[in-house]
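Students often ask why we bother predicting the structure of a whole assembly rather than each chain alone. The short answer is interfaces. A chain on its own may look different once its partners are present, and contacts between molecules only exist in the joint model. In this exercise we take two input lines together and write out one structure for the complete complex. Read the inputs first and try to guess which parts will touch.
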Amino acid sequence: MTQSEATPPIELRGVTKRFRTPDGSTYTALRDIDLTVAPGEFCAVVGPTGCGKSTTLSLISGLEEASTGTVTIDGRPVGGIDRRVGFMFQQDAVFPWKSVLTNVAAGPLFRGAARREAIDRSRDWLRRVGLSGFEGHYPHQLSGGMRKRVALAQTLINEPRILLMDEPFSALDVQTRQIMSDELLDLWELTRPSVVFVTHDLEEAIALADKVVVLTVGPGRVKDVFPIDLPRPRRVQEIKFEPRFVALYERIWNSLRDEVQAAYTRTAGEAA
Amino acid sequence: MSEQTAVSDPREATPRDTQTAAAARRRRLRGRATILSIQAVLVVAVLGSWELAARQKWIDTFLYGQPSGVWKQLVDWFEHGTEVGSIWQQFEVTLEEALLGFLIGSVAGIVLGVALGRVRILAAVFGPFIKLFNSIPRIVLAAIFALWFGLAIPGKVATAVVLVFFVVFFNAFQGTREVDRNLIANARILGASPWKVTTQVVIPSAFTWIIASLHVAFGFALIGAVVGEIIGAQHGLGLLINQAKGNFNPNGVYAGTVLVAVMALAAEFLLTVLERRLLAWRPSNDRDPESGL
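Now the answer. The structure tokens for the assembled complex follow.
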């Protein structure tokens, strides 16, 4: 996955993001970030709490604008929301007043597809995520894992070339999370978008990704980048017993540990 | 897909489920019957003691009236009409004023509330004016409207509109501001234009707030209509109440009040039906009809 492309799908160059806090001061979430994601590459971003992981995704998606530096998609600077981008949020973001079927059809309908076509594609995607038979249900009638599947189908139906995921499975129990991770990998293989997957779970990051980026404690900078050379297809539950996985985990954890420790001391210091 | 069992599918109900469901239904019905009989006893006790007090001359019927007198007044109105025409006509006039005021006021409230909630510059420009108008005691406006429109229907409608508008406006505005940021971000990424975000995300989400205000708003519309009629009118229940007051006929005042209350309850019932239909997507546990007012 290290072949050098002329124009990578996602590129951040010297990106800094500052927010204005309610009391008038500025808060630097990211400082001087450089990040490149190759076509079809699955990139996981790990880092301690409050290191600006989620901010990185907002910048790529166009929901937020970088304070300095450039964010480019296919070589063009991001200016607002891009049609090629899909975003799966940490919290539930499916529309509670829409049925499962119309939730998944929302993207094509927003983008001007004919109703019949959008509904047909929605049924198709619901079948792929294993939710056939639940078309008429409302989100509150589903379990957490099923709502995540709806969100996944809702995002993937737009066939994004770039898929951004912000700790999408963090609200799920461990078993469901592993099942969802396997399903995500299967679906990802179908269309192979470039992925930026933000998580605080290093095991999840290694099991899924081609490349793990470690961010420092906030304001976040890129500390290390580790290529993950585990063979695909992978089974998330089993891969963590392989010696290669364990070795990678140890190396990356060594890099991450100091940052987690620093973040912990900082919050503990604030609490005291 | 193990967690799919979390969904209870009515098609898969076992015979035992049906049995326990039937037992639960019977228990619920018994509970309802108990509540209804206690309520009936309470009504009989209050009206009975009022009637008794009136008949025993413990209270002055000239001032306080009596239930049987109210009933006689109602029968008289329905059988022989009122001084200003049939009772149905008065009913209809008041209902028309209240309904028109309710419709105009709530549509204006929803449109402006959502617009100001969505577009910050509008809120910044019009916010102070709305606060200013809201600080005027609106019943006072009924007198001004009586000057402008005379005794005809438009004056009452205008009073109802100003009463309804602010209630609905503030709820629609707040509801729009409280929409989950994640839902809006999700819709935008999925490709929704600002207009589609408003119609497909903001309005459905704010509707929980808006519908709550509509219950109060119809009551306000009725107040507007009746107060307008009391200030000056040719027809309507408010006029009947005012005339009865002028004739020292407390039973007439109560009878008019009863008719206004009947109208309010009927409207409340229709709004509840509408609410259930529009908010069918919500979890059902907070829609127990007996748990709230």
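Check your guess against this: Chain B touches chain A at residues 1, 3-4, 6-7, 180, 182-183, 185-193, 196, 200-201, 204-205, 207, 279-283 (CB under 8 Å).
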